[in-house]
Amino acid sequence: MKLEAFIIHLQRAEGRRAQVSELFRQIAPLPVEILDAVDGMSLTREEIEHVYRPELLKPLYPFALRPAEIACFLSHRKAWRQIVDRGLDAALVLEDDISIDPVIFGNALRLAQSRCDGSSATMIQFGLRPPRGRGTVIASDGETRIVCPQTVMLGAQAQLVSREAAKRLLASSEIFDRPVDVLFQMFWLTGVHPLAAVPSGVFSRSAKVGGTTIHAPKPLLERVYREWQRYRFRSQTRKLSRLHGGAGETDKAA
């Protein structure tokens, strides 16, 4: 398998450089490249309007995207483009605020690779936590499992993306209206149904490297309002996921 890794890193995020170097070391001997992230602070209004169109898809995403969220999406599209243009069978796409347990992650990656090739539209997520609800176990090796979750996990910190999956994700996101991980959940539109590696061996280091570069603190009333809107949206997404073939309640527990 022709496999490489891309670490998405924002150049001005100087507090993360040591973490990026450590992650680079942890992923080796796999070929690794630092992929310059798109900077939301540098995006012009014209650049944003070219790719971002609110209320494009249903269920309607209830929040306007911040420039940082748009830039994050564009950074992942940049990684997918590299997979296609280089003719890779697949690539690990990693954000720069994670760390890994080499043993657990290594086991998960080996099992994930066994389920992935360039011609199939395969994405396998290495989440910060196991998927919620129930799901179907697709493959297992000891304690490591590849699971088809009932509802696709949120989060885009780490995933294995095949070439065919990258093509489909690019085609379905030339214009977008929601964060990249929320689009992952809409497999009935993208043609890519993400699986999950459990346990993943991936952990967040966001708090230790300066916090998120996307979200900013909000007043209490706004936080309450957003939580209500988020709950309604996620309920709609779960219903659509079940309707379009997400793992059912009677499937083997993940």
UniProtKB/TrEMBL annotation:
InterPro entries on file: Glyco_trans_25
Domain Glycosyl transferase family: 4-102
Lineage: superkingdom: Bacteria
Entries under Pfam families matching the protein: Glyco_transf_25
Protein known as: Glycosyltransferase family 25 protein
Organism for this UniProt entry: Chelativorans composti
